[in-house]
Amino acid sequence: MIDLCEQARQRTGGYFNAYLPEPGSDTRFDPSGLVKGWAVERAAEHLEGYEFYLNAGGDMTVRGSWRVGVEDPAQPDQLLTAIEVVDGAVATSGSAHRGAHIVDPHTGAPARGLRSVTVIGPSLTWADVYATAAAAQGPEAVTWLATLPGYEALLVGDDGALLATPHWPLPA
Questions:
Q1: Less CB within 10 Å around the terminal CB: N or C of the chain?
Q2: CB of 125 within 8 A of CB of 147?
Q3: How far, in Å, CA of 51 to CA of 80, rounded?
Q4: Burial 125-141 (b: 16+ CB within 10 A, else e)
């Protein structure tokens, strides 16, 4: 897990970092932005040969074709859109359910500029890492996300503005 967290730090330019600044001390190790997606993928390995979706706190991996709703972070009981996901993963990071829990590892301050980031792609481990890193980075992360092969993203700014990578799917 430590090695995987280091890979995530390198892939995200340090915006995902499991070693977080802690007031009054150096750092604390918190791999939670990676572990959930990784664990769900490990569980899904036992379902090979089946069509399924496996959801853990709103992040999911699917086999087959599934329509997946993306909630509005300002009104979590409402959807922004619904997309078709085929044999892939969906991860969302943001403040809608847990408040300002994402930290910019470069400053130690709470992340600002985005209410949520939803990433789709082939791996839930990496979709979850990329969503967390993008939320820490802020709105300019849309440019970085667009460079990740096989991944697309929808970002919701603090002001409610929507940003998306060029191939974010149209609503299903």
A1: N
A2: no
A3: 26
A4: bbbbbbbbbbbbbbbeb
